[in-house]
Structure formats: structure tokens, C-alpha cells
Here is the input.
Amino acid sequence: MARVSQGKIYLSDSSGRMLASGSGFRLQPRSGRLLKLDGVSYRGALEVFINPVKKPVIVNDLDLETYLRGVVPNELSPTAYPHLQAIKAQTVAARTFALSNLGLNARKGFDLYSDSRSQTYRGRRSEQTLSDRAVKETRGMVAVYRKKPIVAFYSSTCGGLTASYHDMFQRPEISYLRGGAKCPDQDSPHRNWKSRISVTDVQQALDRLGIGRLKKLVPMRKSRQGRIVEMKFVGSKGEKVLKGLKIRSALKLRSNWITDLNTRKNKSKYIREIRAEGRGWGHGVGLCQMGTVKLAERGWKFERILKHYYSGIEMDRRW
Ligand SMILES: [Zn+2]
Here is the structure.
């Protein structure tokens, strides 16, 4: 167990006996053994330390291929979607995503978060036979653009047409993430959605806009692929235009692809409920996981699937 107090870490064993104290430790398992943290086994070493921004962190230090074994099944379940080519496409996307992210969190003392801020990693217990096979058979393979590993964004269900990175993230265009790839994800349970959102459920996000009580939502601009990328929020104390994914998170929607938007108001003309219909789940940028499964079912190989969603890329074997 690790306890942190006043910038120092105190390590104790399971019986509570103090082992050591200091600003950081590296725990290396004996050969063939695994370290456990909160009941979960991890391959590789664990590092417990105070990072450069003075926060305590626990980092699992392991090689990229082993890391992928604990990531891929969380990102695309081989149990629910037992298609080797789909799992391989997901594996190459996850490997490439990890590689392009190395060093980005150096200030915090690690490369990748273990949740959706990077990719969901849960150690040894996530590993499955089919995904282990996909990792092994694609060892070292990454998607590259002009010889550099791509920023391999992926999401659950694009809704039929992939989105542009520029529109969703409001960042400069990336050529292989321009969007517009046609996608056969029709049978996904998230292809079409309907939501009723009570304004009280999204009040916190609305409060941060500082516009008072919500009176009106005005969609202002749609992307070429049909997603709402600018929406004006009009309130009792002012108005604000939100762009890209900020619209989705403010209203807790499954995607920016809103096909129908209605509001219900109370007696004082403030919105009390938002009713929306739309398509897809996630940002819709890059590889579409449900579409990937469909294409694999049609007999597409993983390289072809990746080239479909990331236009103009090449495959490269790095190790
Ligand atoms: Zn799709």
C-alpha cells in the first residue's frame, strides 16, 4: 500500500508494516511474477513517485506490445466482436495512438493515462486469446503518414460518415483525419439515438458558460458531414457560441450528429428539457469501431480497413 503525506510516499505491506518512505520507488517483480495494485495484476514494473508537478502518481512501466494486450480488449471486445481482422485493425490503431503520444505527458511523469483520456488499460485481467493473437501477428506495425506514426483517433460509431478532426477538436486540419469516409455501421445499437436531457442534469456545464438560465439553443453551423459544429446557447444573462465537441459535452449528447432538436420550456420561458435525435456515438473522427467490425465481416483485411478510415496512410513495421 502507498500513502502520501506532505510530499512523501509511505509504503507498507499488506499487514500494514512500514516498508519505506521517500519521494519515489520502483517496484520490480521477481522473474515470472506479477505485481498487484488494488487487486489487479500488472505485467512489468510499478513506479510510485511524486511527479514534477508535485502530484503522486503510480506508473506501470512496461513495453508497448505488452501494454497493448491490456488495452485492445477494453477498446474493442473480442468476446462481443470475435473478428480477427477487426481486432487487428484496432490493435494497430491503439499501437499507433500510443506511439504518437509518447512524451506528451512527460511533465506529469508518464506517457499515457490508463483511461479514455488516452486508451483504457486494465493490466493482466483484460487480456484475451484473440486480442493477444492480434497483438502478436501485427507486432511492431504502425500506421504512418509521411513516415511518421499518425494520431490514430478512433471512436465507437460514426453514424455512417466519419467526422473531421478540425471540426470536432477545433484544431488545425490533419490530412488523414479529414473525415467523410463512408461507413457501414447501420446495425450498431448506437447508429441512431434519441435523448431527453433535463436541464438540471447539465446545469453544471451550463453554469460554467456564465449565461444564466437557458432560454434558447440555436444551431449555427453544420460540418460537411452533417454534424453541428457551432451552437449558440442563449441565456438570461447573455449568450455564448460553443464549437465542436464542447457542444456534445455541454449537453451530454452521444455525438454532434444531431438530426432533430426540440426544447420544452417552463412557464417562465426557460428551457427545462432538451429532446434530441441523432446518429453515432463518439467524436466520429478516424477509425469507426462498429464499421471496422462490419468491414471485417465482409472479408476486409485490417490494412485495408485502416486505409479506409485514415486516408493516404501507409503501414510500416517498426520492430
Ligand atoms: Zn461508422
Remarks:
- The first helix runs from residue 64 to 69.
- The radius of gyration is 22 Å.
